[in-house]
Amino acid sequence: MIETHYLPDWRWGDSLGHGLAFDLIDLADTANEGALLVNEALVLVQRAALLTGAGAERPTNRLPAPRTRLAEDWFGATVCYQDQLIVTYVRGCTQLASAAVAVATALLADHPVDIEAVKTPALPSTLLRKPHAVVLPLELIPAERDPELAAAHQAVLDAVETIISCGHYHPEVFDDPRLLDERHGGPLEVDGLVLGQALHRYGAGCLSTVAVLTATPD
Fold it and tell me: What secondary structure does DSSP assign to 148-172, as a single string?
């Protein structure tokens, strides 16, 4: 099942201004809600697969013809629904990760925060074309990286490399689920979920860094 990642329970983000903390919270909530919806879709696909007998050695005519057709149609519909939600999940996680790492990087370098990086975060197609520009490695201390964040960052780069190298996907597919039928030919329930989960973990880690750096004293 797809994990969700929750925000720190202390007050943080007041110093960012421009409503950026609320924007980041909204992006994190969107990623979490996307994860929960994908979980529900995965269960529906499993139920439909059981009804149709997909992947199992069962008599082909174990259901009356009308019910067989219903089961097959339901299975196709659930797979389509699942793929659309995976795309939505990847998009939400990309925007969370790109916005959170931009803010965390600016804070750690004592630079002004790029407001537009949060207000209009990157889309997956940009990530797939320029991953190193969208999800930067985060150095908590100069020349030193947190092992968990570093592992999460590498997982994002590995997932991007898998999707690009397989050649099954047009980058814009992950921007808009309506493009799935025309430009998608790969196993989204594998490649898409790996990318989404990696982005979600990295985005949540970067957001936790932002929360620590902008914590409001009691």
Answer: HHHHHHHHHHHHHHHHHHH--B-GG
Contact (CB, 8 A) for 90 and 192: yes
Sequence ranges of the domains in the chain: 18-213
Token pair of 42 as six digits: 């995965």
Quote the pLDDT of residue 190. 83
29 class by beta-carbon count within 10 Å (0-12 exposed, 13-18 middle, 19+ buried): middle
For residues 90 and 63, the model is more confident at 90
| C-beta neighbour count of 133 within 10 angstroms | 11
Half-sphere exposure of residue 84, counting CA atoms within 13 Å on the CB side?
Answer: 10
pLDDT in tens, 16-38: 999 999 999 999 999 999 999 99
